[in-house]
Amino acid sequence: MIIGIGFDLVSVARIALLLATDDAFETRTFTASEREACAERADRAQALAARLAAKEACLKALGTGWGPGISFLQVEVISGDGVQPGLHLTGGAGARARELGIERMHVTLTHEGSFAAAAVIAESRDLSHPAD
């Protein structure tokens, strides 16, 4: 059963500007693993913009947005070459997912030119149809 859906669109230029002018932006927004995965990429700003869009979309799917007790660092985008991206939630974001009974989060990332986007679907087991 679908518990929540989130979508977000991010300007790659805005992320590139923040990376260039705000020394704390990257560590405040992305986990060490995310920063490492994007560090050597030629499309680094696009890749980080897509991850930020996924974080925002995830928080929308959780129905919380970011705020007290919830941070971008609690939503980690897990990806690899040829592997479908996934999300790992910790802290307040993980607690909210457990509270809602979320068992799986589907995420898709995309970027084209000036924009990056992500969609997230939060799913729980449908209790009205018990597993056989």
Can you describe this structure?
There is one protein chain. The strands form 2 sheets. The protein has a 3-stranded antiparallel beta sheet. It contains 5 helices and 5 strands; from the N terminus they run βααααββαββ. The model has no long low-confidence stretch (mean pLDDT 91). The protein has one domain (2-123): Ribosomal Protein L22, Chain A, CATH 3.90.470.20. The protein is an alpha+beta fold. It is globular, with a radius of gyration of 15 Å. A hairpin with a 2-residue loop joins strand 2 (75-80) and strand 3 (83-89).
In short:
Helix content is 38%, strand content 31%. It is of the alpha+beta class and 132 residues long. Strand 2 and strand 3 form a beta hairpin.
Index terms:
132 residues; alpha+beta; Ribosomal Protein L22, Chain A; 3-stranded antiparallel beta sheet; two-stranded antiparallel sheet; 31% strand; globular
Write the layout of secondary structure elements.
Blueprint: E1 2-11, H1 12-21, H2 25-29, H3 32-38, H4 44-61, E2 75-80, E3 83-89, H5 91-100, E4 104-112, E5 115-123
Antiparallel strand pairs: 1-5, 2-3, 4-5
Helix pairs in contact: 1-4
CATH topology: Ribosomal Protein L22, Chain A
The CATH superfamily label reads: 4'-phosphopantetheinyl transferase domain
CA-based shape: globular
Order of helices and strands: EHHHHEEHEE
Bin the helical content.
25-40%
Order of strands, main sheet, comes to 1-5-4
Q: Sheet with the most strands?
A: 3 strands, antiparallel
Instruction: Catalogue the unreliable spans.
Output: none
By CATH reckoning, the class would read Alpha Beta
Cα-to-Cα separation, first versus last residue:
17 Å
Taken as a percent bin, the fraction of beta residues is 25-35%
